[in-house]
Amino acid sequence: MSQIDSPRTFPLGRHAVERLGYGAMQLAGPGVFGPPKDPQAARAVLREAVASGVNHLDTSDFYGPHVTNQLIREALYPYSDDLVIVTKVGARRGADGSWLPAFSDEELTQAIHDNLRNLRLDVLEVVNLRIMGDTHSPAEGSIEAPLTVLADLQRRGLVRHIGLSNVTPAQIAEGRRICNIVCVQNHYNLVHRADDDLLEDLARNGIAYVPFFPLGGFTPLQSSTLSQVARHLGAAPMQVALAWLLARAPNILLIPGTSSIAHLRENLAAAELQLPEDAVAALDGIEAHGIPDGKAVNARSVPRPTAP
Ligand SMILES: NC(=O)c1ccc[n+]([C@@H]2O[C@H](COP(=O)([O-])OP(=O)(O)OC[C@H]3O[C@@H](n4cnc5c(N)ncnc54)[C@H](OP(=O)(O)O)[C@@H]3O)[C@@H](O)[C@H]2O)c1
Hints:
about 15% strand, about 300 residues, two-stranded antiparallel sheet, binds NADP nicotinamide-adenine-dinucleotide phosphate, alpha/beta
């Protein structure tokens, strides 16, 4: 499917959002810990995103911690009515920047109040429960206890919609028996496709699939096939990686992260990039053949800092 056939928007809770959104994690300091070197530049990226039509922002109060939410509030409050800010709970940061699980009733309730305060909202539009699993891969285990807490906070009017992150199909099925799930945020990109079946199943159920690390994460994707296709189309490799995701399934919503306005503009322009069938076939082959020519670097093989 090319983007000509792809819808530009997909429902996320009560809004239909543009399929190209923005992930704010890269705006915090190194290791997603502490403030950025240039907070003014970070706020400028956020303003540029929204001015360019982005109406879906991904964040968390554990980015910084508190830093990306505060930057969003400083840059964008009062928010426009159609802006959907999606946050996530389930982790906290140690004094050394470590990522620690935070799933108790008290920790989840505190996280919701922290997000509300730092974003200056009365209700959080969408909250993902981020399961720790195997850091960036899900691991089986019941999610009933923390999800029940989040569903209670939803009933109390503090959360409008609930999503899940870093979860297995069984956990999604368990979650859907507890409350309505509007989105799933898992690790997925051109070279990491464990969720191929899952995302199609979610599409059939009208649930948004939001890949994290759409560009490979802290070490952006590198592949000679990707570079060749990009050269042939006169596009940047990261644009091609995003266009491939847009063409992959209509329920995929993208939240590429960047701290650079130039990269932001490049990424948003991927919405206009049409991939011919032979380009899609070549890109599909990257995963099928692993590392095709020995020069490609698969994002899975590159060590990088951990971050939920
Ligand atoms: N649920 C979860 O567990 C989870 C985990 C990780 C992330 N997330 C969310 O997903 C979002 C996206 O993930 P991510 O930001 O970690 O990774 P990403 O979007 O895959 O890639 C970000 C990296 O790519 C670089 N980049 C961006 N645009 C580029 C371009 N056009 N050309 C070259 N390099 C480019 C960025 O560097 P520059 O800053 O230099 O552009 C940054 O190093 C995050 O912002 C966060 O909101 C969720």
